[in-house]
Design goal:
- The protein folds into 2 domains: about 110 residues, Aspartate Aminotransferase, domain 1; about 60 residues, no CATH class.
- It is α+β, with helices and mostly antiparallel strands.
- It is about 45% helix and about 10% strand.
- It contains 7 helices and 4 strands.
- It has a 4-stranded antiparallel β-sheet with strand order 1-2-3-4.
- A hairpin with a 2-residue loop joins strand 1 and strand 2.
- The two termini are about 50 Å apart.
- Helix 2 packs across helix 3.
Length: about 200
């Protein structure tokens, strides 16, 4: 017996008349193709869980969306970059793959979850080293303790100080931040030291 959620019923009932048959169709196909799926609401939209995140649907004023959590592993590319999910702006059931094709996608997605396959996280390119502005170099050179501490900081700690100082909107603010930074660095404090032991 399908594990439905009354909140999904309410969501479909409140949706625009054009959206209701689309959402009911998606719901039926997902339950038929993956009997162990559990309905829930995530981000205020109907979602289906099956051994983890699985798929979800939503209705908007002029269209619906449907997408798989692991759509990239199913080799599904978004039909429309402006719409959520992999099927673009769905305005009728005809905008979806046929029932058999959609069920096959649901089964492939379920198999991924059965096997514990996860979506590889894209590797972020490391940020380039931050350039220390001349006025900060000069202020550090006048305080040996601050200079030694700053040079011992990790690149991310140095970046936080540099960006904080150069992001100042006025010269006056920059000068205040520079003086405060030298004081904190000399004391061995990282830029956000106030929040470290919260």
């Amino acid at each position: 017996m399908p594990q439905t959620d009354l909140r999904v019923d309410a969501y479909i009932a409140k949706s625009a008349p054009f959206a209701q048959p689309i959402l009911r169709h998606i719901r039926a196909v997902v339950h038929d193709a993956c009997p162990g799926v559990v309905e829930t609401m995530k981000w205020s939209m109907p979602h289906f869980d099956y051994k983890g995140m699985f798929c979800g649907m939503a209705a908007f004023k002029g269209h619906c969306t449907f997408g798989f959590w692991k759509g990239s592993l199913l080799r599904l590319k978004p039909a429309d970059e402006k719409a959520m999910g992999q099927f673009g702006c769905i305005r009728s059931v005809d905008d979806l793959p046929g029932t058999k094709a959609l069920a096959a996608l649901v089964k492939r997605a379920a198999k991924l979850n059965d096997e514990g396959v996860s979506v590889p996280k894209p590797k972020k390119a490391p940020k380039p080293p931050v350039a220390t502005p001349p006025y900060l170099k000069a202020a550090l050179a006048k305080n040996r303790r601050a200079l030694a501490t700053f040079e011992a900081f990790s690149p991310s700690c140095r970046r936080e100080y540099v960006e904080w100082i150069i992001d100042a909107k006025t010269e006056e603010t920059r000068a205040k931040r520079l003086a405060m930074a030298i004081e904190w660095i000399a004391a061995g404090r990282k830029r956000n030291w106030k929040y470290e032991n919260c």
